[in-house]
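Support reply, case 0932

Customer input (verbatim):
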Amino acid sequence: MVVALRTRRTLHLPITLSVVLMVLNVTLMICWIVLLAQYTWWSALVVGTIVFALILVGLSFYMFLLIKEIRLNQRQANFVDSVSHELKSPIASLKLYLETLSLRQLSPEQQHSFFKTMSSELQRLDHLIDQLLEVGRLDAIGQQAEPEEILLDSLLKDCVQSVCAHHQVDEAEVFTLHLKPGRLKARPLVVETIFRNLLDNAVKYAGHPKRVIVELVAGERGRTLIIRISDNGEGVPLEHRKAVFRMFFRAGSELQRRQKGTGLGLYIVQELVKQLRGKVVLREPEAGTGAVFEVELPGQLALETPSASRLVTSQPVDSTARPAL
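Our regenerated output:
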């Protein structure tokens, strides 16, 4: 509630001030026109009208930039809140388990369960640190490897398996794959990062029971490959669909958040897709529910799998490392 009140006050003040100044400018311009028109001072009338018009345009542009900056600051504040929570939660959990192990005698089964949970929390912490570092080195991701011919359908299957292992879900129950053989030339780590982000988001925000559909088809004229990832969740509200790829963007307040994340995942996806000279968009779901992300990349369908082609995953991304919304 405090965050919401702070947001409303922050936005209302610059908007109100800018509107008042614009109304005052229009009023003065009208008075100027009426006054000079009575005395037929046409030269002064033209010059004054132009000056007032320029001031009005400047005020409008200033209000646009100010609101844009305030919204960016709000997203950054949400980002700091979410990262603080994401850092504290695994650390607090690890501390609790370590204290329990040191103070109590536990059975081997209990110890195994504790160690498994601690390992998961460490992976979560490592994932957060990795995604924060990724934002600062987007241009360097995968640059140590040369572009190679990638069998995209095989890579997508590997990414699905990794995401299922991370979320501890059954692949056959959650995923439906419609993949035509396709290949493209790119750095494997870049492509892996893109689709592990999108697949992880799809599983995270899917409904109950979770259902995710992955499709790989040819684009127009057969020169591109289109990958669609659909889920059966609540989807993205219409007013947020253009903003989901912005850095730090997460709809709502961190105090009311139900899903973990930092608001960096889709931003990273968009930047990496641009590096591959492709595009990523959020489509309108056909059934009216869920989210449909569509990625179009330069490539073509592989009617026959070349024997020389192989999927190379040098320096693979951790199966749990995936920025989220």
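We compared this against your earlier run and they match. Two observations from our side: Residues 91-139 form one domain. The radius of gyration is 26 Å. Please reopen the case if you see a mismatch on your end.
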